[in-house]
Amino acid sequence: MQAASHRARFNQRGVSVIESLCTVAVVAAVSSLAMPSFEGLRTQRALDGIAAQVWIQLKAVVLTIVWSGVVSLVAYKIVDLTIGLRVPEDEEREGLDITSHGETAYSK
């Protein structure tokens, strides 16, 4: 239960970072059009350029998420095939503190 809660917090943080970066990009682009020094840029062409840039950034975010997922899956499979993801059942029953680390903190 605790691990699932940790994953949920990580996923929320990851999503909020992506949302924040996209929001900053949009706000910066739109606010630059409102500056007096950019009077000549307040055209439909400039707005189309901003939309195109947001689309490029959105595609980059999606590509990054997919790339991370694929690389993680490959790493997961490599570890699973080489050393395995679980300890043997008898070591698990005896306790990982003792079998893996030589600790006896809770079995005294």
Q: Would you kindly provide a written description of the structure presented here, covering whatever features stand out?
A:
This protein has 4 helices and no strands. It has 108 residues and is an all-alpha fold. The chain has one domain (2-101). The model has no long low-confidence stretch (mean pLDDT 75).
Q: How does the SSE layout of this entry go?
A:
Elements: H1 2-34, H2 44-82, H3 89-94, H4 96-101
Number of strands: 0
Proportion of helical residues: over 70%
Arithmetic mean pLDDT? 75
As for the number of domains, it is 1
Terminal CA distance reads: 26 Å
The computed structural class is mainly alpha
- Helix/strand order, N-terminal first: HHHH
Instruction: Output the radius of gyration.
Output: 25 Å
The largest pleated sheet is described as: none
Detail the poorly predicted runs.
none
Number of helices: 4
Give the percentage of residues in beta strands.
Answer: under 5%
Q: Which of globular, elongated, flat, extended, rod-shaped describes the shape?
A: elongated
Question: How would you concisely characterize the structure shown here?
Answer:
The chain has helices at residues 2-34, 44-82, 89-94, 96-101. The protein is mostly helical.
Which features characterize this protein?
single chain; 108 residues; 4 helices
